[in-house]
Amino acid sequence: MHILENYVAGQWRAGQGQPARLHDPVTGAVLAGASSAGLDLPAAFAWARQQGGAALRAMSYAQRAALLARVAEVLTAHRDKYFEIALANSGTVQADSAIDIDGALYTVGYYAKQGSRLAEDAWRMDGPADALARDNAYAVQHVRTPARGLALLINAFNFPSWGLWEKAAPALLSGVPIVVKPATSTAWLAHEMVRDVIQAGILPPGALSLVCGGSAGLLDALRPLDLLSFTGSADTAAQLRAHPALLRGEVSLNAETDSVNSAVLGPDAAEGGPAFDALVREVVREMRAKSGQKCTAIRRILVPAERYDAVAGAISAQLARITVGNPRHDSVKMGALVSRAQFDNVQSGLAALRGAAEVLYDGAGLPLVDADPAVAACMAPTLLGARQPQALLHQTEVFGPVATLMPYRDTAQAWAMARLGEGSLVASLYSDDSDFLAQGAQALAESHGRVHLVSPEAAKSHTGHGNVMPQSLHGGPGRAGGGQELGGLRALDFYHRRSAVQGAPARLESLPTARAAAFAE
Ligand code: NAP
């Protein structure tokens, strides 16, 4: 069995004991094994903090941005290999693998470019200085200083590549060493990428470490002022929050968790019109892409009551054209869920939703292409509908190709229904009415990390309900975890500490040029 080793304290090390197995979710074949048992994590973390932290902090943002540019080059050079691994281990068709792999390359490249504009600074001024004294002889300058701890980056199974690099790029650009922990079931791709970057010798020793396999002991190895950035389920996030280091506030947490996202059709949208068609297209794309295994996928479709039947018919007609099965075939448009365990999870979640909804479209009867239904984690899309939706439908994230159609009476009810998700990553609005779009943005911004407006003139160029662009904030309040990532250089905030420096104005003027060497020890 191909064993995925851990990269700790500058060395590749296999874990002890029986490794967890990684499978091909279509054929069931065992692809690799991973174990982190027996690693000396406290020593590995100390080494990362001391070696990696000092080396990264000795550089300017622009120098670290140049490292990211070289990381992007190395990853790009191995792109084809990554697609092969994603096909085997995630069971995704080419277009879905691209969301993960090309999304990562784009994000690393984006931060390389943004960082290069930060010039030779070693820390960041936060706004202009403010006077503190009547005679203007004393003032305060707020500053953001790179954190001196390490960042532990724990990722979910659905984005082994993008999930790693959308966290890693802002952390490394900030000058913070990282320990990466991919979800075990799809860790192969993350492992391969880290291996390629380490072999290329781009990053200073200690800047990048990797722990594959189980998570035991990871949080215990964190020290006060370390950072933890987590993506995964709300249940796991709750467990992390209960760890003593987090309870005592010694370690800062950024959590990205579940989300029951919605798409809202405007009252002006006529059947077959551009806004109507844009919503139908987007819902189908979100249900198909990665078999619905995107935290941002549309789970609820809110439409004016008089459009309920027309929308149900239009979405169902397009879902019926999706071929499901082995992603190695060109005719297949939707591959597998990530594992048979995840298949069982989705089936039980769907059964719960079905108890509270009618089935508008069920592709389960159609044959899979070149995949054994008793083995493969392949699942056809299901569209549910509820004319009087219960709370369960607003609050249950089924992490697969499942969405529920719901009618609304008026826009006030539409906003109220969207908010029943109790904090979501994204809501999208489809309309040609500027008032509706503006009102919706205002009504939903507070409970959503991102509001995505689709009007006819943007029908072709909008970036997609579920696509997370590094320019835009990613994260949401409440159920979505309360975290914030990306959003351009805002992503660096989590990896910096903000403080106030008070002094005579002339002295404060020399702060921006403080040498990086001051941060290195
Ligand atoms: P998960 O079971 O919560 O696992 C997430 C990660 O946490 C994995 O790396 C897992 O490692 C690790 N982990 C589990 N228990 C841990 C513990 N006690 N201490 C430290 N680490 C621990 O989530 P998942 O099943 O991989 O992912 C699906 C979920 O992620 C969905 O709910 C989805 O909505 C959410 N998600 C959210 C976003 C977002 O940005 N908001 C993005 C993607 C996915 P092992 O794999 O080794 O168990």
UniProtKB/TrEMBL annotation:
Domain Aldehyde dehydrogenase residue range list: 12-456
Keywords noted in UniProt: Oxidoreductase
InterPro entries: Ald_DH/histidinol_DH, Ald_DH_C, Ald_DH_N, Aldehyde_DH_dom
Record has Cytoplasm as a keyword: no
EC number: 1.2.1.77
Superkingdom of origin: Bacteria
Keyword Oxidoreductase part of the UniProt annotation: yes
Gene3D superfamilies: Aldehyde Dehydrogenase, Chain A, domain 1, Aldehyde Dehydrogenase, Chain A, domain 2
One Pfam family from the record: Aldedh
Stretch list, region Disordered: 459-482
GO molecular function, one term: oxidoreductase activity, acting on the aldehyde or oxo group of donors, NAD or NADP as acceptor
Major enzyme class: oxidoreductase
Family matches, as PANTHER family: ALDEHYDE DEHYDROGENASE B-RELATED
Protein name: 3,4-dehydroadipyl-CoA semialdehyde dehydrogenase
Organism: Bordetella pseudohinzii
